[in-house]
Design a protein that fits this description.
Layout lengths: L1 H9 L8 H20 L5 H17 L5 H31 L12 H27 L8 E3 L7 H15 L6 E3 L14 E7 L8 H4 E7 L7 E5 L4 E5 H8 L9 E11 L11 H15 L5 E7 L7 H12 L6 E4 L9 H4 L28 H7 L2 E5 L5 H12 L3 E8 L7 H11 L3 E6 L7 H13 L3 E3 L6 E2 L2 E8 L4 E8 L11 E8 L2 H15 L10 E4 L3 H17 L6 E5 L5 H12 L4 E5 L16 E6 L4 E2 L3 E4 L6 E5 L5 H5 L1 E7 L3 H16 L4 E4 L5 E3 L11 H4 L5 H5 L27
Parallel strand pairs: 1-6, 8-9, 11-12, 12-13, 14-25, 17-22, 19-20, 20-21
Antiparallel strand pairs: 2-4, 3-4, 3-7, 5-6, 7-8, 10-17, 11-15, 15-16, 16-17, 18-25, 19-23, 21-26, 23-24, 24-25, 26-27
Helix pairs in contact: 1-2, 1-5, 3-4, 3-5, 4-5, 13-14, 17-18
């Protein structure tokens, strides 16, 4: 537990601690652990670290190839970079400015910092243990090696020196820090050598005077490894070893006392001030904030271990004082710093076969055609549920591309949160504008880490004549909606796509999501109203199929939960099953607790953060929580409410988080069509059956990996969904549901014009 981790970390202090100090620290750690365990809620940030542990668990899997395992290790490193940049950065926004914060664990900001960084320290140790003890020993038999300079042949050493002299050396710039030179700007997430040299002017002075510190940043646009192709293996020489070997060329006639590699992570969490001039001040402010990420306060220092030199301790103490950090922020690395660099090895052409080829997508149920020639006619036949990546994202792209060229299309409206780098979505919208269509795009330029790409793409669209809205005041537009308006002679038909995932054709191959293609006029009218609200000042009537935030999503979800609780208290059938990415909103969690106490069976499938504590006697005995982590990132959001045998099922963009309800424009959409509803129910049912990718959350906050029962069969949903049959879908049920027969045959047009609202 956390208390034990804190105790372990305190033992790593360089100085000796007295018995009294150890006893005091032990009591503090026990108190911290007790507070966390007594809370009815799990800490958001500690829960996220548990998620990354489950990702790291994939790197341990003996069923995976070495390259697959390295891939998951690299993902954990990328995740940690973002975690420190945003979540730990956010915590320091409270610490640095003296603001109060109480974590869901019950801890105030100062003790929570220690608990969080202690847990992060332990996770870092686990990463290195996996790499050094489980993965690195497999390199040789997979015909690759990670090498140091002295393991190269004379010819290879000469090649490395030539590479340094021609390419690396001209790019390096030593930056001195002393009483005549200000402290240089050190970039986050790049490799930096802290070089301590002897001051030639005062060789016998006090330590602080006879030593000088300078920094050498290794340019991030250089490959991390230099490759050497041998007959039977590929060698990977880290760039820092090349620089280390030849760093004296930067300090001629100067004695180097130590040269230690480190990497820093800065606070990148920022908020935006509201502005009346959204198209000028707002965009400029975002650009400035992006630049400021490179200058934020330091929250983590990764420092290579085992290279003690006479100047290292002096340098570390100086950095700690300069950046106002302590040992909790220092992460000693006994192997590579920054495992994200492993992608260079993973993507090396010689190891291409070590990454399994992706399974080709299958047609969505009810649409067995390999290629849809006319997406408009197809959508008018029936509602179509797309389940990515099992179903191709191509129908969505085809809808936009066909709309861009179709002379009968009058308008296209779309919300965008994240795009692919070379986006077919953007190209289709540009073509539509060129062809005279009215194109309206609500472009969320505040999408974290995609701000620059989104601003660039939005400005391209604006220059082409598209009507671009750069976001709505203090809210992030996270909803995913598309509307195409088409003139069809005596009537105008609207075509819609509603989704849980982004309009990004690349991530659609990697993330599980659902999307609904429909011409149902209830949906299209709701979406038209919604666009009028978020782009203008319209106040809508009640939506029929949409639940939206920040309007009333929390309230409506709570009402649906309370309805299940009331049914349970009346002795009627009840049940809740929700699949989402994160569960954090305390008001909704409290309602789920009350529903559990009323007897409602609640099954939650939460990929990442879960602040709800399941299986606690008297609080949440009827709640189970599982998390699925596998080859695809589980991104689907589905909300199921039993409703006394007439289930209400929603899909959409929102998680159960404070930010989703209060600070984002979100939407959930009712799955009204019987076949589509059954498909969503079947998704939930399979998620509850998985025994390969699934972990169960225990009452103490730990996760236990699900196992195949004795005599049972493996059930891997990330394979099963490729072989799904219509019979399986139509017979799916939750909480002993017996699916009702569909009232209207699929062949009959379901969207009568009289249904327009």
């Amino acid at each position: 537990m956390i208390g034990n981790l804190i105790h372990k970390l305190t033992q790593r202090n360089n100085r000796e601690v007295t018995g009294k100090e150890v006893d005091k620290m032990s009591k503090v750690s026990e108190k911290v652990s007790s507070v966390i365990e007594q809370s009815n809620y799990l800490s958001r940030d500690l829960s996220w670290l548990k998620f990354n542990e489950r990702v790291l668990d994939q790197a341990r899997s003996l069923d995976r190839t070495l390259m697959e395992r390295l891939k998951f290790l690299a993902i954990t490193a990328s995740n940690m970079d973002e975690f420190f940049t945003i979540r730990v950065g956010s915590l320091y926004n409270y610490l640095d400015y003296g603001k109060e914060r109480v974590d869901y664990s019950g801890l105030r900001e100062v003790p929570f910092r220690k608990a969080l960084l202690t847990a992060a320290q332990q996770f870092s140790k686990d990463q290195h243990q996996v790499f050094l003890e489980e993965l690195l020993p497999l390199f040789v038999k997979n015909e690759l090696r990670l090498v140091y300079h002295d393991e190269l042949s004379a010819e290879e050493q000469q090649q490395a020196e030539g590479y340094f002299d021609r390419t690396i050396y001209p790019m390096l710039t030593p930056m001195l820090y002393d009483y005549t030179h200000t402290f240089p700007v050190l970039l986050p997430k790049v490799l930096i050598f802290g070089v301590v040299t002897k001051n030639p002017d005062q060789p016998h002075a006090h330590e602080d005077d006879h030593q000088r510190l300078s920094f050498v940043q290794i340019p991030a646009n250089l490959p991390r490894f230099m490759n050497f192709e041998r007959e039977d293996e590929v060698l990977f020489l880290p760039i820092e070893e090349i620089v280390r070997q030849h760093i004296k060329k930067l300090y001629r006639n100067v004695e180097i006392l130590s040269a230690n590699l480190f990497r820093i992570t800065r606070n990148g969490d920022f908020t935006l001030e509201e502005s009346d001039d959204i198209e000028a001040d707002f965009i400029d402010e975002i650009k400035q904030k992006i630049k400021n990420r490179r200058l934020g306060r330091v929250v983590r220092v990764e420092l290579e271990a085992g290279r003690q030199g006479p100047g290292q301790e002096w340098m570390v103490n100086l950095l700690k004082k300069r950046w106002e950090i302590d040992d909790y922020n220092l992460f000693e690395t006994p192997s590579l710093i920054d495992y994200t660099s492993l992608w260079q090895i993973i993507r090396h052409p010689d190891f291409k076969e070590e990454l399994p080829a992706p399974h080709p997508p299958v047609p969505p149920l009810g649409l067995e055609r390999e290629k849809v020639t006319d997406i408009f006619e197809t959508m008018k036949e029936r509602d179509i549920l797309l389940h990515h990546p099992y179903n191709n994202f191509e129908p969505v792209l085809q809808l936009l591309e066909q709309a861009a060229e179709d002379p009968n299309v009058l308008a296209i409206k779309l919300t965008i949160y994240r795009l692919a780098k070379r986006s077919r979505i953007t190209e289709a919208l540009l073509k539509a504008a060129e062809n005279g269509k009215h194109v309206s795009v609500l472009f969320e330029v505040k999408a974290r880490f995609d701000e620059e790409n989104n601003i660039r793409e939005a400005q391209r669209l604006q220059k082409a004549g598209c009507f671009v809205i750069y976001g709505i005041s203090r809210f992030k537009t996270h909803t995913k909606l598309l509307l195409v308006v088409r003139n069809e002679g005596n009537r105008v038909v609207r075509y819609a796509h509603l989704s849980s995932g982004n309009y990004n054709e690349e991530t659609a191959k990697l993330y599980t999501d659902i999307g609904l293609l429909t011409t149902n006029e209830v949906y299209t009218q709701d979406i038209s109203e919604f666009f009028n609200v978020i782009t203008g000042h319209s106040l809508p009537n009640e939506y029929q199929y949409l639940i939206t935030a920040p309007r009333d999503m929390r309230k409506q979800l709570i009402n649906l939960i309370r309805c299940e609780a009331e049914n349970a208290q009346k002795g009627l059938p009840s049940g809740i099953c929700i699949k989402l990415n994160s569960l954090e909103d305390q008001e909704v969690i409290d309602e789920l607790y009350k529903a559990s106490q009323a007897g409602v069976r609640i099954r939650l499938i939460v990929r990442g953060i879960c602040c709800l504590r399941p299986q606690r006697p008297g609080l949440s005995e009827n709640i189970t929580v599982r998390s699925l982590v596998g080859d695809f990132l589980e991104h689907t959001r589905v909300f199921y409410f039993h409703n006394n045998g007439d289930p209400k099922v929603y899909g959409g963009s929102a998680d159960i988080m404070v930010r989703s309800f209060d600070r984002r424009i979100e939407s959930l959409f009712l799955l009204a069509n019987h076949r589509v509803k059954q498909e969503a129910i079947q998704i939930l049912q399979y998620n509850l059956l998985d025994n390969i990718n699934a972990y169960e959350l225990k009452e103490d906050g730990d996760y236990k990996r699900c196992q195949v029962d004795d005599g049972g069969e493996p059930f891997n949903i990330q394979q099963k969904f490729f072989d799904l049959t219509e019979d399986e879908v139509m017979s799916a049920g939750l909480f002993n549901d017996v699916p009702a027969q569909e009232a209207v045959p699929d062949e009959v047009e379901e969207h009568d014009e009289e249904e327009v609202h």
